[in-house]
Design brief:
two-stranded antiparallel ribbon, about 65% helix
């Protein structure tokens, strides 16, 4: 009795399956939540700037006393660029560089980390780290803007220097921890893939 051969898998379905897997493994998959965060930060700047006076105290000395000002429209435009555009560039430019297969990445033991079977995980890790740092910077810049808004509520405007210094210390400590984690990952061979 002749056995009926099993039908061959549909080539088109196999191609679609492989392409969907490759899309899920592409670096930068976490960029969408970050883009939403950038949009929220821009809305935060716009919303909180409504209470600012026509001339905004925008620069402060070490004592917290205002020593520079600008029109509110100019300040809002400047802060939108600083708060939204700078973190966005710091996140998106590395993603584009990492996706370039010909890009030369300065990593310890690049033959190991950029080997064909390991390159995708390495690129994903670097992409995540770029987004994480940009997120930290975004939060700090929003915090600094909020302090400026609060400073302009006083007469005369006065920035709470201790709050700014405290926030700066937290940001620098977080940045240091980020750098240490990044260096340790590649020096210790922590190939954790989706870390």
């Amino acid at each position: 009795m002749r056995e009926t051969p099993e039908p061959a898998p549909h080539r088109g379905a196999d191609v679609r399956h492989r392409s969907s897997m490759s899309r899920t493994k592409q670096p930068g998959w976490s960029i969408v939540p970050f883009l939403l965060l950038v949009a929220c930060a821009a809305l935060f700047v716009l919303a909180t700037s409504q209470s600012l006076p026509g001339i905004v105290a925008s620069h402060f000395g070490a004592s917290g006393r205002a020593d520079g000002s600008m029109p509110r429209a100019a300040y809002v435009g400047f802060m939108l660029v600083i708060v939204a555009l700078v973190p966005l560039v710091l996140a998106l430019v590395p993603l584009q560089v990492f996706r370039n297969p010909n890009a030369r990445l300065n990593l310890p033991d690049p033959e190991y980390w950029l080997a064909p079977g390991r390159r995708a995980a390495t690129i994903e890790y670097l992409s995540r780290q770029a987004v994480r740092f940009s997120t930290m910077l975004l939060v700090f810049l929003c915090y600094a803007h909020w302090l400026v808004v609060r400073a302009n509520e006083a007469t005369p405007p006065n920035l709470a220097s201790h709050w700014f210094i405290g926030g700066l210390v937290v940001f620098l400590a977080a940045t240091l921890a980020w750098v240490v984690s990044l260096v340790a990952h590649f020096r210790n061979g922590i190939g954790c893939g989706p870390c």
